[in-house]
Amino acid sequence: MKTAMETVLAKGALSHIRVLDLSRVLAGPWAGQILADLGAEVIKVERPGSGDDTRGWGPPYLKDRDGNDTHEAAYYLAANRGKKSVTIDITDPDGQELVRALAADADIVIENYKVGALARYRLGYEDVRAINPRVIYCSITGFGQDGPLAPLPGYDFIIQALGGLMSITGERDDLPGGGPQKVGIAFADLMTGMYSAVAMLAALAHRDVSGTGQHIDMALLDVQVASIANMNMNYLTSGRVPVRHGNAHANIVPYQVFAARDRAFVLAVGNDGQFAKLCNVAGHPEFALDERFATNASRVRNRETLIPLLEAVFRERDAQEWITPLERAGVPCGPINDIAQALDHPQVKHRGMRIDLPHPQAGSVPLVASPMKFSETPVTYRQAPPLLGEHTREILVRRLGRNSAEIDALAQRGVI
């Protein structure tokens, strides 16, 4: 017979945790989805009638059983797996009371409203803490709760530009297509979601010891600046502002895209031993003995000489004719897949990164799995991203004890 702890762990590491997700778009919902995958009960509060902005960010939309578009945009589906949707109008006093009641026994509250916006509805951190001192309240904004830009809305594109990422992303100005580029996904949003999840788990661990909740202040700009990582340190240690290298690496050579006879491929030589192996496979062992190229430091200094030599060699064969022997020799390299090819890759399939969950309109919805693999508390996929308000009645009855007449009256007034 299982103990209580064994029962909890079998349902997911966070199956004892309740999360109230007041966020929308990506950073907050991404953090909430991580917690849901780990077993937490995540209740997503949305606006009646329209819901999360991303529900309408299409096409593409999920198709129903007859092949027609539903109202579930692919963007929304990416960040809301495992949650329960409740529609509540937080501008209405009765709606505010419902949200406060849900927050009263929540372990975590996630919100990404403008600074001070929820306080107007008595749903800010101090309001919630007054009724739930153990709450972990995570606020996600573009610029944080204080500072000269705090009142402004935060959008990933702006943050990538302001935070320095676009200045080091893209081809050099002197080459075709040169100029700053944003990353192909909402990098600042996703990284903020990840950092927020880590912060909330750390706060939970602290609460286990202290019994005290706390306010977490997450800013997209802070995360973006922190995520520049080694490029920050390149600047701080040298005083030289990093520039764009396109698909090349600022600190490692050769570490970039090369054009083979039929198509391009990626080469990522991480040390001098790998470079010697590369030169042997390429039929030019003398490159590794040349003092200009023998060490990574010398290769970085002499990249303008080395790279054209390698480019000429790689154009002699098709990409796979290089990839196969290089992999066999232990030299990191690979093809440049599109998303369809990546999802169809044997390794990706083996790791179970594509899943399907039952969906009330489509029959099933295709999704990408969580990358987290646990030996004792596996990720749980309990349900597809919910329809707008799919669980409103269930949650109001089960969590708040409201009866059908009360719920009907709220619905008739448009509160839910």
TrEMBL record:
UniProt-listed Pfam families: CoA_transf_3
Keywords: Transferase
Name of this protein: CaiB/BaiF CoA-transferase family protein
Organism whose genome encodes this protein: Novosphingobium cyanobacteriorum
